[in-house]
Amino acid sequence: MEFDHVGIATRDAGALADLFDDLFVAPIAHEERFDGMRVVFLELSGGGYLELLEPGDGGPVADFLDRSGPGIHHVALGTEDVAAALDRARSLGVELIDEEPRPGAWGHDVAFLHPRSTGGVLVEFVERTDGQ
Q1: How far apart, in whole angstroms, are the C-alpha atoms of residue 80 and residue 102?
Q2: CATH number of domain containing 21
Q3: Could you tell me if residue 39 is inside a domain?
Q4: Looking at the whole model, is its pTM more than 0.85?
Q5: For each successive 10 residues of the chain (132 residues), what is the average pLDDT?
Q6: Into how many domains does the chain fold?
Q7: How far apart are CA 107 and CA 115, in angstroms?
Q8: Are 127 and 79 in contact (CB under 8 A)?
């Protein structure tokens, strides 16, 4: 596994993208609307991304913002095989949010582990399907 990205919940992805680009020289690598959200990936020069999550109407990120305010939402680790990573987590007794990989932003296959089993951290497995 390797670091892929940190997901950050925000109410204004554009403003935060501008700030992070100025602070960290982290330009926009990819932007899309996905699952009712605006999702912006900022590329870090040392590798990996910051993923800015701006919710539309409702959804888990909107609920997170209402409950916790803006900030780190999840940590994502890259893997060559999300299904195998889920099997390993399952064998270790880790509670899964996703029993099987599902489509995620940027066309990747993803799956989440429940924070109750991972020290309070929402963990995402990412299998890049497009070479990114």
Answers
A1: 14
A2: 3.10.180.10
A3: yes
A4: yes
A5: 97 98 97 95 95 94 96 97 98 98 95 98 90 56
A6: 1
A7: 24
A8: yes
